[in-house]
Amino acid sequence: MDSRRQRQLFIRDSLKALADAGAQGLPVRRPEELAGIDGLVIPGGESTTMSKLAVSFGMLEPLRAFVRAGRPVYGTCAGMIMVADKLLDAREDQETLGGIDMIVRRNAFGRQNESFEAAVEVTGIDGGPVEGVFIRAPWVESIGASVDVLATYGGHTVAVRQGNVLATSFHPELTGDHRIHGFFVDMVRAVTPQGERA
């Protein structure tokens, strides 16, 4: 499957996960659309391409401002890379939004053909482990003092939170188990009590 088609599936499944969690998901393509949302999900894809597109479409600085303002953001897989303050194994010109004081290693779990699913215990998620889908997944190499580790797998950090920014190495939206998206929706509601748009 090509990366554009795969990203479209990640977006579709993320919107469904948000809907199942009781929130109205809206695709965001232009800077002015950020004003109409209460939280932001950055789904998987190819992080280098996402970085280039954010620059090309004038989204990079508005997205950074959204994060700096303390608005809730959830990044999955490539989205985790996008909310990292620093990257390993990235192109020198790759931009991130920042938001979590962590160093992330891109494609740490291997290439596309080494993708896998695994049960992951996530702090704050009731009901037992979630099934994580790891596709060219990153992992967190190190974190700052303000970052909470929510999950590890194989000795590597795969889910973190700092303030209103949440990130997972894996794709929970692909499994039909939407508890992590529900956790994020609760984060959004905690800062915008009437907010149900992500």
Topology of helices and strands:
Elements: H1 3-20, E1 40-42, H2 47-56, H3 60-68, E2 73-76, H4 78-82, E3 84-88, E4 100-105, E5 116-120, E6 130-134, E7 139-143, E8 148-153, E9 156-162, E10 165-168, H5 179-191
Features:
198 residues, alpha/beta, 3-stranded mixed β-sheet, 25% strand, globular
How would you describe the overall organization of this protein?
The structure is a single chain. This protein has 198 residues and is α/β, with parallel strands linked by helices. 28% of the residues lie in helices and 25% in strands. It has five helices and ten strands, in the order H-E-H-H-E-H-E-E-E-E-E-E-E-E-H. The strands form three sheets. Strands 1-2-10-9-8 form a five-stranded mixed β-sheet. A three-stranded mixed β-sheet has the order 3-4-7. Strands 5-6 form a two-stranded antiparallel sheet. Strand 9 and strand 10 form a beta hairpin. The chain is globular.
The topology string of helices and strands comes to: HEHHEHEEEEEEEEH
Query: How are the strands of the biggest sheet laid out side by side?
Result: 1-2-10-9-8
Mean pLDDT figure: 91
Helix count? 5
Quaternary assembly: single chain
The coarse silhouette is globular
Estimate the helix proportion, in percent: 25-40%
| Beta strand count | 10
> What is the CA–CA distance across the termini?
27 Å
Q: Main sheet?
A: 5 strands, mixed
Report low-confidence residues grouped into runs of 5 or more.
none
